[in-house]
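I am writing to request your help with a piece of structural work I have in hand. I set the record out below, with my sincere thanks for your time.
___
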Amino acid sequence: MTDRPKSLTVTLEEPVEHKDKTYTSLTFRRGKAKDFVAMDAVKGEMRKSMALFASMAGVPLPVIEELDTEDFVKVGKEVAVLMGNSATLAKLLAQEAEMSASPE
């Protein structure tokens, strides 16, 4: 048995609006193989990580694309615990998000 939680909720500092719905938090479930398939459906490394998060949260990709950069980095860090043996991948995605969010 694993100590990983089945899900976790990330409260957003900046709510996201998409199709008449306001998201103030996102609840992510543990990673599944189908989440990696969602990554393959899009082009670009950053969009792949966004597709992974959208799949795990059960929200449309534009919701993740509209996250404030600090919220996006927060999601990447917190969701890593749900990835289990894929935590290394999740950590890399979080680092990638953090680097992309940093001003040059």
Observations:
- Residues 40 and 48 are 7 Å apart (CA to CA).
- The longest strand covers residues 7-18.
- The first helix runs from residue 33 to 40.
